[in-house]
Design a protein that fits this description.
Strand content: 15-25%
CATH class of the largest domain: Alpha Beta
Number of strands: 13
CATH architecture of the largest domain: 3-Layer(aba) Sandwich
Number of helices: 13
Order of helices and strands: HEHEEHEEHEHEEHEHEHEHEHEHHH
Low-confidence stretches: none
Radius of gyration: 22 Å
Helix content: 40-55%
Largest sheet: 7 strands, parallel
CATH topology of the largest domain: Rossmann fold
Mean pLDDT: 94
Shape: globular
Strand order of the largest sheet: 3-2-1-4-5-6-7
Number of domains: 2
Structural class: alpha/beta
């Protein structure tokens, strides 16, 4: 009984960190900001946080309040990783029990998961891109559906990165909405610089260069409306999407107005936002509209596609456009550029809702409530 009461109030949680050596992106940023805060919250309650570090290591540092447990779990090869995670999790759980400090929960944000982790598990879902007919081939969709179905069916608690993803999980997998907690993202890690978008300032499109980002519509908008500023795409190219977009720019005769700059360094983002004529978020599919939040917090003019995650995070005054509609995209960009100071300040205030401390609180709450169900 004492062990159960402790777990319900001060759980000892093991995080599967085998994929956290990846390049900077939404998942890595989430963990780099949330894990130290979660460890502090748990320690104050009498619990603890440990991370099972894979053979690829971690791509960021963690404070001493987080116990780092070295493993040989590979980051690549989903099935191989899942089998290795099962073996290592059971081993680490046995060692913790033998030391008198048993884990109460193992937490992951990737799939597939081993069917035998040896502990109750928690699963954070960032998006459902691999279930989308528009963005994943049929074999991938079938595999992803089965893997996620198994992971969700055995979960003690499930977190969704946005209300939009929660709704999709509930509707697609028939989950009880009370068993899914929203644990989003923050943006308060990034410094805000004074606006300095002078003559020649360009549109900024930030994020991976991949089909689900809907980037073609921005290039088509340039061709549709020559009065728009030039555009800077800052993001890592995935597959052949950049080549496809470059060919599109050539065919529309706007090559000189388009630059692909590669992945932006984390330290450059405040400057990029400060110098942008307008930040454009044209995605067809997102789990959480992090770029929209960061841009608004930076005080930059912003235009977003009308998808549920953008609707969830953007200020009511932020101009929207339908996915893939180049003319509407151009109009939204002009509207954003002409937005009065009051509208930008309203968007900035709205973005202030998204703080990493609140995210960490929500994650710990989901664990405690999930274990208590």
């Amino acid at each position: 009984m004492a062990t159960m009461n402790r777990a319900l109030n001060a759980p000892r949680v093991l995080v599967l960190g085998s994929v956290l050596g990846q390049a900077m992106g939404g998942v890595r940023r989430h963990n780099a900001e949330v894990l130290p805060r979660v460890a502090q919250i748990l320690a104050a309650r009498g619990g603890s946080l440990a991370v099972a570090v894979g053979r690829g290591g971690l791509g960021f540092g963690l404070p001493s309040t987080v116990e780092l447990l070295s493993t040989n779990i590979p980051a690549q090869g989903p099935l191989r990783r899942a089998r290795s995670e099962g073996r290592w999790t059971r081993r680490l759980a046995a060692e913790a029990r033998a030391a008198g400090r048993p884990f109460d929960l193992v937490h992951s944000a990737h799939q597939p998961l081993s069917r035998n982790l040896g502990l109750p598990h928690s699963l954070l879902v960032h998006d459902l891109r691999n279930l989308s007919a528009a963005h994943a081939i049929l074999p991938r969709r079938i595999y992803a559906r089965r893997a996620l179905d198994r992971a969700l069916a055995g979960a003690t608690c499930v977190q969704a990165v946005s209300a939009a993803v929660k709704t999709e999980l509930v509707e697609t997998f028939g989950l009880d909405k009370e068993s899914v907690w929203v644990v989003g993202n923050g943006a308060d890690h990034m410094p805000v610089l004074p606006r300095r978008a002078g003559a020649g300032a360009r549109l900024l499109v930030l994020g991976h260069i991949e089909p689900r980002k809907g980037l073609a519509v921005v290039i088509e908008a340039l061709a549709d409306d020559p009065s728009l500023p030039d555009v800077l795409f800052a993001g890592r190219a995935v597959g052949e999407e950049q080549e496809r977009l470059e060919a599109l720019a050539r065919s529309l005769q706007v090559t000189e107005r388009v630059e692909f700059a590669g992945a932006a360094d984390e330290g450059d983002l405040p400057r990029l936002f400060a110098e942008a004529a307008c930040v454009v978020c044209p995605s067809e599919l997102e789990g959480f509209g992090i770029v929209a939040v960061e841009a608004a917090r930076a005080g930059a003019p912003l235009a977003v596609s009308r998808i549920a995650p953008h609707e969830e995070v953007a200020s009511i005054a932020t101009p929207r456009f339908e996915v893939g509609d180049a003319s509407a995209c151009a109009r939204a960009i002009h509207e954003a550029q002409q937005a009065p100071t009051g509208a930008l300040e309203q968007a900035q205030k709205n973005a202030g809702r998204f703080a990493w401390g609140s995210v960490a609180d929500a994650l710990v709450t989901s664990w405690i409530e999930g274990l208590g169900r």
